[in-house]
Every structure is written in structure tokens, then in C-alpha cells.
Amino acid sequence: MFNLPGYLRTITLTFFAVLFLVWMGCEPNQYTMEDFSKVEKIDVHVHVNADNPAFLEQAQADNFRLLTINVDYPDFPPVEVQQKVAMTWKSAYPDRIAYASTFYMTGWDSEDWQQKTIEHLDSTFAAGAVAVKIWKNIGMDFRDKDSNLVMVDDPKFDKIFRLIHSKNIPLLSHAGEPKDCWLPVEEMMVNGDKAYFQHHPQYYMYLHPEMPSYEEQMSARDRMLEKNKDITFMAVHLASLEWSVDEIAKFLDRFPKAVVDIAARTGQVQYQSSRDREKVRQFFIKYQDRILYATDITQEVNGDVNEFKQGVHEGWLSDWKYFVTDSTMTVSDLDSSFQGLALPAKVIDKFYRINSEKLLPGAWNKE
Ligand SMILES: [Zn+2]
Questions:
Q1: Potential cystine with 100: which of 5, 18, 69, 294 (Cβ 3.0-4.6 Å)?
Q2: pTM for the whole thing?
Q3: pLDDT tens by residue, 67-103
């Protein structure tokens, strides 16, 4: 090309410059259903509890990375087993999965609970844990030796939270329950909650007025955050404020370092958008750096592998349709149809990937 006469060289360079600009302009403003498997995505809240690779295989097929979260939950295998499963998949699929550890409340009343918890968490960090989960058993279930419920703003936790912060590890908090848990069935927002709480009366707080109210659960979490404003904090399940995007917005404004995941609360967002789509759409655009895509999909130890894969794929696809397109759609959580949010591609990239990468830098490494 450098042997070309000057005018031809100018024409050639201009041609390539124009081509480059056209290519830049081609970056999509909007994704489609066809982009689903092409776009890199992260589901930042799942529970991989089985020792078969079905979840990882489906994640690979659908271009997802995962954060599997250990929880001290009686329906799950013991925390040590969950951690072992997570580590197995981490070594088999290092760039596909990362894991969050947790700690037991057992021994809370003994002198050395803090020390033991710190040692346990340190060992999980050494084993590769990239976040720590605190669960709703704090505030809703665990009682001290005097039978008082231990709330999350208890000063005994502060040393633990400081340790986590000092290691630059994010704290993932599940505080309380969806507001539906405190409401009569006919006032609940989504069908999933109606079914769950009717079948689990022991967890249905509407039937247990002796337990702390919804507001008390939210204030305990907020007081804890007031004390620990500098920690990196993800309030899972839309900070349990899923019933109102205005309330989530207030929470995010009040705690500028906090982010939220949408795990298992997409139905409540769809409910609100079926009433005021533009309001919900603007909420996602305004807080595009603070909301993380997640599902809470749990792989049971003994589930049917093909059925599970199919379910995961369909769930991810339905969410993609809602956030990416403006199609009219239905989901089992709602009785009527509603329209997708058709969020801009740049917002989708943040929601589905970039915000999680920022929260957990290096979590999905190649080694
Ligand atoms: Zn979960």
C-alpha cells in the first residue's frame, strides 16, 4: 500500500476509517432472543449442591458463569459438604464457577465463637471462597441461651464483618423474607409465595405475630449497615424490598456502597412492571450499576439431571426475554400477561455481567 500514489493511499485509508466507524456503530443498542447464548452472562446467586456436572454443563451451553453460595440451611447438605462440592467444581471448571462461604451460629454463646468463626472463614478464603453469605436464620430462627432471637446488628458480629472487610471480601446478606411472608394470602404479590407459605406455615410470619415484624427485620439490617457503611455489601433478593422499586431505590441511595441481586424476586418485579412498565424500566436504567442478575436456582443432590438442565435453560431464557425484549409474556408467578422491559444492551451487559465482575474481581479466574 505504501507504494501507491498519494491520492490512492488517502482513498484507501479513508475507506478503512469509514469501515471502522461503521463497525463501531454496529454495536447493538438492543439484544434479541438470538443473542442469548452469544452474550457472556453471570448468575451471581445459585446453589450447586450435587456432585454431577449438570449445572456446570448447562452454564457452559448457555454462556453463564455461576456464583454458588453456601448456606447453613437444614434442607441443604451440611456446610462442609457444600463447600467440598463447590471446591470440586471450582477445580474442574475454574473459569465457570466461584463460591461464597458461610459460618455456623452453633456455639454463639461460648467465649470463643468469634475466634472460631474467624478461623473458619480464613480457612474458606484460603480454599478460594470469594464472598461470605449471612442468612435469614439470623433474625428469624437462631436463638441465644436466653431464647432471644439474635439479630444481625448484634455487636458480636462486628468483629466478623470487620475481618471480612479487611480482606476485601464482599458480604452477601439475606435479611428477612419477601414482604408477602407477613401478609394474608390474598394480598400476596406472586403465586410462588402463596404456594410456599401455605405449605410452610412454620415460616409464614403472618401466622406468627410473636416474631419480629417485616419492618423490624429491615431495620436490624439497616442498623448493621449504618455501623459498617464501608463494607462491600450485596443485599440478596433485592434487599427483601422486592415489593417496591421505590423502596429499593431508597435503600441504594442510603447505602451507596451496597448492591442488590434479583435472585428469586424477578416475579415481583414483573408484577410491578405489569402495572407500570415505564417506572420499572427507568429504575433499572437509573440503577444500572447496582443491580445484579441472579436466580437462586438450586441443584438438589438427587434430582433428575435432564429435567434439571431443561428447567435451568427455560428459566434463564424466560428472564432474558423479559429484560431484553418487549414481547408480551406470561410466567407462573403471575396470573396475567405483561410486557418485557427491552433494556438497552449496555444496561443488560452491566446487569448480566459487569456488575458481578466488579463485585468479585478475579473470581472466575482461569487457574
Ligand atoms: Zn439462595
A1: 69
A2: 0.91
A3: 999 999 888 999 999 999 999 999 999 999 999 999 9
Q: Decide if 242 contacts 265 (C-beta within 8 A).
A: yes
Rounded CA separation 22/61 (Å) = 31
pLDDT digits (tens, 9 = 90+) for 30-66: 999 999 999 999 999 999 999 899 999 999 999 999 9
Measured in whole angstroms, how far is the alpha carbon of residue 278 from the centre of its chain?
23
Instruction: Measure CA 254 to chain center.
Output: 20
The Cα angle at residue 312 between residues 34 and 308, in degrees rounded to 5: 135
Specify whether domain 31-359 bears CATH 3.20.20.140. yes
CA of 335 relative to ligand 1 center, distance in Å: 25
Question: What 3-state class would DSSP assign to 144?
Answer: coil
Which 3 state secondary structure label does DSSP give 69? strand
Q: Which residues are within 5 Å of ligand 1 (an ion), measured at CB?
A: 296
C-alpha 4/C-alpha 2 separation (Å) is: 5
Predicted pLDDT at 28? 73
CB 325 within 8 A of CB 294: no
**Ligand 1 centroid vs 45 CA: distance in angstroms?**
6
Q: Which helix (H) or strand (E) holds 233?
A: strand 233-235
